[in-house]
Amino acid sequence: MYIIEGNIGAGKSTFLKLLERHLPYITISLEPLHNWQQQVYGQSLLANFYQEPTRWAYTLETLAMICRVREHMQESTKTKCTIVERSIYSGHYCFAKNGYEQGFLTELEWQVYTGWFNFLIAGKCKPPQGFIYLNIDPAVAFERIKKRNRHAEKKITLKYLKQLHQRHEDFLIHKIDVLSELHEVPVLVLDCNKEFETDKVYFAQLLHDVELFIHRTQLACPKITSATTRRSYDE
Predict the structure, then answer these.
(1) Any catalytic annotation for residue 107?
(2) Which terminus of the chain has a smaller tally of CB atoms within 10 A, N or C?
(3) Within a 13 Å sphere around the CA of 144, how many CA atoms are in the beta-carbon half?
(4) 182-235: per-residue pLDDT in tens?
(5) Are strands 130-135 and 26-29 parallel, antiparallel or unpaired?
(6) Superfamily of domain 2-229
(7) In Å, how far are 12, 119, 191, 222, 233 from 203, measured between CA atoms?
(8) How is the chain split into domains, by residue range?
(9) Which of 85, 101, 169, 195 is catalytic?
């Protein structure tokens, strides 16, 4: 199992769907946004968080952790090469940690959340084969978020995206205060400031980088031969 990470607006869902189209030997698992973005529980927890973060941060992060642990356990048992959007790791090291550092979670809430994280990681979740990090400038991400104009994201600020960007860098690049087993997990960093969805040449380069990364790190994925598995971008 591989995990794709990146800031809000990096293009993770779009990138995964393109990978699925051009790499038929993989399966993808998109982030279950409906659990906290739509009114599954009678209200949008994500919209509530952006409007009143100190009230909703703990509720949102706890729900996200539950969903991601369940998904991690399910996907890690599959024999086919799977790429999952976001993870319990970024939920903790990026979003929940940032919420705590910004004062959105109280000290008690952070300790309870961290206790559950440590318990679930140790007993339920084994590390992925690799992380794929879609790196994007926060200003570029901010413009993309405004362009897609999702109701739940209207309160997102550039300041918040800059905070999350630093958390992703600390987690994936600098490995600051992360679990020891994650230090050995390889990370592929992709520059996603360009519009890879419309730039066919650039996406082909990113696709090649992902294929090479899987080649070098795979354990359970089938052997890949470009003649049988790679599709032309123009298809």
Answers:
(1) no
(2) C
(3) 20
(4) 999 999 999 999 999 999 999 999 999 999 999 999 754 444 433 333 333 344
(5) unpaired
(6) P-loop containing nucleotide triphosphate hydrolases (3.40.50.300)
(7) 13, 39, 11, 23, 8
(8) 2-229
(9) 85
